[in-house]
Amino acid sequence: MTMTRFLTRREIWEEIDARVPSAKRVMAAVSYLGTGGAELLPLRKGDTLVVDMSLGAVRQGVTNPKEIRKLMKRGVHIFTRASLHAKVVVIDDVVISSSANVSQNARNYLDESGLLTNSQGAVASAKKYIAKLCVEPVRDRYLQECIAAYKPPKFKAARTVRQVPKGRRRAKVWFIGGLRYINAEADRPAIDRIEKEAKRELANPENCEVGWIRFCRKPKWFGDIQKDNWIIDCTRANKRSHDVGPPARVVRKSTYKNRVGKARYVLVLERPNNGECMTLPQFGRVWKNVAAAEGQVPRRSRAIMSQECGEKLLSEWTPRGRVRGGR
Predict the structure, then answer these.
(1) Range 260-271 average pLDDT
(2) Domain locations in the chain?
(3) Contact, 32 vs 102, CB < 8 A?
(4) Fold of 4-149
(5) By the 8 A CB rule, do 189 and 98 touch?
(6) What is the pLDDT of residue 260?
(7) Of 53, 103, 160, 305, which sees the most CB atoms within 10 A?
(8) Kind of pairing, strands 263-272 and 278-279?
C-alpha cells in the first residue's frame, strides 16, 4: 500500500533516527553536512552520500570535511558535487525529500519540512537520480586538502535563534506574569521616545502597534530575553480576573530614568492591533492541552524551554492576535 506523509522538522529527524541505523542500504544526496553530521545521519559501510564538499563550501564551513572523514572510515561511499542543492535520503524502500541539510541548525532551529513516501516509482526515481550524481568520488588526497582549507562558520545567516551569553536561558517564548495596568503619565516623555524609535522596527506596521511592559526593578530574567523572542503576558484586570496574551514580539529592551532619577526597565513589543486576550482559566486549559510537558500552569514569569510547546502556545492565536476557535 502506497503511503505519503508530510513531515515537519521534528518529524523529519524522528524518521531518520528511527530508520537509518537499522537500514540495509541508504543513499543520500544532501547539500551540506555540518559539524556533528556523521552522528545526525549515521551512515554505515556500503551506504552512499553525495554532498557539496567543494573548497568553497569547506571554506565557508557549511560542510565539515572531518565529518566526511568519519563516514569514509566507516566504509561510506562519498561523492562531491559543487552544484548540489538537493536534500534527498533513500532509506531502503522509502524516500525522504525535504529542505533540511545535515546540520545542528536544521535539526534544532530551522522550520524545515518535507515528504516521506514509499511509492515504488518515487523510490526508484530517487535512487536513479542519486546514482547519476555519483561522478566525483572523494579521495584521501582531496579530503586532506579540504581539512586544511576548512574554516568554522562565523555567521549563520538563516539561524533564527540568537546566541545568548553562557549560563543564560535560551527560549523562543516567554510567559510574563504578575503584571498590572498602570498610569504612566509621569514617564510619558521617555515612553513616547521609546515608542517613536520602536515604530521603525515593526515587522508588520499595518497590523501591529508598539506595546511595552515596564518594570520598576530589573527582573532576574531580563537579560535572558532576546530580540524576536515572543511574550505571552498575564495582566491583572481586577481582583477576580486576569488577561492573557495575545503573543507579542520583542522589538528591543530599553532603560530610562524617571523624573526623580530612578531606573526603569522596558520590554518594547510589537503587538497585533485589536488582539484578543484569553482569561486565565482559558489559558490554563490550553496549557494543559499543549504544554503539559513544561510542568504546571505558570504563576510567575518563566521561559518556555521546549520550542515545540512554545510554538503550540503561539498557535493558539491567529497571526492577527485573535484566539483560535473563539474560546
Answers:
(1) 92
(2) 4-149, 173-326
(3) yes
(4) Endonuclease; Chain A (3.30.870)
(5) no
(6) 82
(7) 53
(8) unpaired
